[in-house]
Amino acid sequence: MRFSSVTGTHSPRCAPHGTSAGSKAERSDRWRAGRRPRLGYGAPSARGRNLLTETRDETPLLDALRGGDERAFARLVDELTGPMRRLARTFVSTPAVADEVVQETWLAVLEGLDRFEGRSSLKTWIFRILANRAITRGQRERRSVPFSSLFDPGPDEPAVDPDRFLPSGYAWTGGWAGFPRAWDGIPEDRLVSNETMGVVARAIEALPPGQRAVITMRDVQGFESREACNVLGISETNQRVLLHRARGRVRRALERYFDDRGLSASAE
Amino acid sequence: MDEHDSMSCHELVEAITDYLEGALPPADRERLDVHLAGCPGCLAYLDQVRLTIRLTGRLTEDSLPALAHDELMAAFRTWRSGRTT
Could you tell me how many helices (H) and strands (E) chain B has, helices first? Predict the structure, then answer.
């Protein structure tokens, strides 16, 4: 049972990571969703202190919560609810059901807070409760695929259409038949426009749940790979395969969009 | 061309996530770096992937409706009073 316990698995806090997306500061920005009404996408919020990501030592926060500090709880709810809702949406049918799962998760967090042992970070622990509940709920709704295949990468899916590479028999077998087009000349305001961000959002919504959950945690919410694995109960290898496929699909959606709009340029 | 030493473009695009995740074995990482240094197509591809990741990171979250927030705060006060009394 991958989800048998929300507190039972040891999880090192500090996962190694490569040269992947975003700086630490950018990542912590993403947690500051706040209660201001937002569109589904837009610029990251202003930089500021963040209880969960700025410091590895969660003791003061835990002490405040356990001591009944209402403001500490309100702040935690404000910071995490948006990301929790987005992840829950991956597994259940409607935004309303996702909100219910988020609400139930917070109640479960309160119930379990005194027993939380700090073997994973508080954030990871909360998200694991959320993922368990959202997946269970999704199964009950029979919306999502069977649990056993939720994180199954499925058959091979090339990141790039194989026809774009030279077949065997050429001097450059496996080389590009035509180079991918360059995106570095696209003006920043076009890159971050609502239209472009809509392309990204729709591509992610169309992903199978496992891929969607992984890219949401890693690239939207800035979780470390170890944390995402812990929350979703999957191996590092499995997580990387799902991330690779998810990024591949989002990239292809952007490529179609930029090429259709004539925004990309020759890379040669 | 020794297939054990060189990496094809096709192979590179499938290894790109492991590369960015720091999960590629050192020998493969070196083959990939060597390939990148001489291949404008794969450099453009890597730029595309990096930009895809950056744009995905700009998606933001909705906030919880005020009603649900108020309920949670009430639940917190109930929880607190249950512990301190």
Answer: 4, 0
A168, β-bridge pairs: A170
**CB–CB of A43/B58 below 8 Å?**
yes
Q: What is the pLDDT of residue A22?
A: 42
pLDDT confidence of residue A152: 87
Q: HSE-up of A228 (CA within 13 Å, CB side)?
A: 29
Complete domains list, chain A, with CATH: 24-146 (1.10.1740.10), 150-260 (1.10.10.10)
Inter-chain residue contact A110 with B79, CB threshold 8 Å = yes
Which residues of chain A neighbour B5 with C-beta distances below 8 Å? none
3-class secondary structure, A109 = helix
Block mean pLDDT (10 aa), chain A, length 268? 37 38 41 34 35 64 93 92 92 92 95 90 94 92 69 88 89 90 94 94 93 95 93 96 97 96 86
Residues of B in contact with A20 (CB under 8 A): 20-22, 53
CB-CB: which of B56, B79, B84 is closest to A215? B56
The pLDDT tens digits for B5-15 are 789 999 999 99
Report the C-alpha gap between B56 and B2 in whole angstroms. Answer: 38
Option in B45, B55, B65 nearest A180 (CB)? B45
- ipTM beyond cut 0.90: no
Run of H or E residues at A215: helix A209-215
Q: Is the separation of the CB atoms in A113 and A65 below 8 Å?
A: yes
Q: Are B5 and B31 contacting, i.e. CB atoms less than 8 angstroms apart?
A: yes
Q: What is the pLDDT of residue A56?
A: 64
Q: What is the pTM of this model?
A: 0.80
d(CA A121, CA A195): 36
Q: Rounded to whole angstroms, how far apart are CA atoms B16 and B22?
A: 10
Cross-chain CB nearest to A191 (options B47, B49, B55) = B55
DSSP A11: -
C-alpha dihedral, A126 to A131 to A133 to A135, nearest 10°: 180
